[in-house]
Design a protein that fits this description.
Elements: E1 6-10, H1 11-28, E2 31-32, H2 42-50, E3 56-58, H3 61-69, E4 74-80, H4 84-93, E5 98-103, H5 106-119, E6 123-129, H6 141-152, E7 157-164, H7 175-195, E8 205-208, H8 214-220, H9 222-225, E9 231-234, H10 246-250, E10 260-271, E11 274-277, E12 292-297, E13 304-305, E14 307-314, E15 319-325, E16 332-336, E17 349-353, E18 359-364
């Protein structure tokens, strides 16, 4: 029996997005370790790897453990981890996969080194480079050299590269924002070049590039490419399902299409032009934009209905639409979301549909903390 609301994933659009990102990465000459926190869905991650991703990125040790259980063999934890228990957990994963993590402080270096020496492993480390007023990461070349020196002196750690996340800026591609992004990329590249002699690998990693500005990363990495054996890796994750809002405006990768929607039932039409749909903040992300109205259907989802309008208010389990059309109580409304990282963690099951909207499968998500 069908119940609503539903998170719906278009399988043809997902597969098209995978092909588009693989083509873009190939043309740009970069590797791809997608950030799988977007979906944490094994069938999607398996398809990302089959499409050419050579590793994955996660946000937490728990996500790393899940990825390793799925058979991922190269996993970047894009965070500094300081909890001793979680670091020991990471060390235990190194028997199944290459696990990499970030540091930006003496505390982070010491904590990782203690766990590595206690468990008898060597952890692969990337230096996290940030920007003033941004998020994590060292702020200048002097700090980069200092933290890198601490890694070199730590018996349980191996410095293999530099990481940055340039997306901690306003959701815009205006000139001021692009200058912030470019300055951040330039600092990270300079840190990589400065530290080249100290990398403890013949294939040092430079990694950056979310889903909004991977093109700016590619434009900045000329000096990295000049280093023998260097790998340039982007970590775009949202591309796989794209969205109807923020990334539609920002993402420079051509050919992407929004693959995820939320479908809800019209529960009330309390006054002319006002619809109340049973899908709200618990069901749809709303951090970047309110959900957008994509279309409407009869109660069986077979016949399209006329609907134009927008979400006026979003409550825990209701969306209030100011709209025009022939939609009435019991009909179905499809919403586009923005941005997708806040969509999948609300849903233990994803409804997978074909090009005609017919349900073809259900996929589970695994968002362990």
């Amino acid at each position: 029996m069908t119940s609503y609301p539903q998170l719906r994933l278009s399988l043809p659009r997902l597969e098209s997005n995978l092909a588009a990102m693989a083509a873009w990465s190939g043309q740009a000459g970069v590797g791809h370790w997608p950030h799988i926190k977007t979906t944490m869905c094994q069938p999607i991650v398996s398809r990302q790897l089959a499409a050419g991703a050579t590793g994955v990125t996660v946000a937490t040790p728990a996500q790393a453990a899940t990825a390793a259980s799925w058979g991922c063999r190269r996993i970047l934890i894009a965070n500094e981890v300081v909890d001793a228990g979680e670091l020991r957990r990471i060390c235990r994963l190194t028997g199944d996969a290459q696990i990499m993590l970030l540091v930006d402080s003496a505390v982070g270096v010491a904590a990782a080194d203690d766990a590595a020496r206690e468990t008898g492993v060597v952890l692969d480390i990337l230096l996290d480079v940030g920007r003033p007023g941004g998020r994590s990461g060292v702020r200048d070349l002097a700090a980069a050299a200092e933290v890198a020196g601490l890694v070199h002196s730590a018996r349980g750690l191996r410095l293999i590269g530099v990481s940055a996340y340039e997306g901690v800026v306003p959701a815009s591609r205006d000139d001021q924002t692009l200058r912030l992004v470019d300055d951040h990329c330039a600092l990270a590249v300079a840190a990589f070049v400065e530290l080249v002699s100290g990398f403890e690998t013949g294939a040092p990693v430079f990694t950056a590039g979310g889903s909004a500005f991977p093109d700016r990363v590619v434009a900045a990495v000329g000096p990295v490419r000049a280093v023998p054996g260097a790998q340039v890796i982007v970590r775009s994750g949202c591309y796989v399902v794209h969205d109807h809002g923020m990334y539609r405006r920002l993402c420079p990768v051509p050919g992407l299409a929004a693959a995820v929607t939320v479908r809800g039932e019209v529960l009330s039409v309390p006054e002319p032009g006002l619809l109340v749909v049973g899908a709200g903040k618990r069901d749809m992300p709303h951090d970047a934009d309110l959900p957008s109205v994509i279309g409407a259907w009869d109660p069986h989802g077979r016949r399209g209905k006329v609907l134009s309008g927008s979400v006026e208010a979003l409550y825990d389990h209701h969306a209030v639409l100011r709209a025009e059309g022939d939609v009435t109580i019991g009909d179905l409304v499809d919403f586009g979301v923005s941005h997708p990282c806040g969509a999948f963690d609300r849903w233990p099951l994803i409804t997978v549909v074909d090009a005609d909207g017919r349900v073809v499968d259900e996929w589970a998500t695994e968002f362990s903390r």
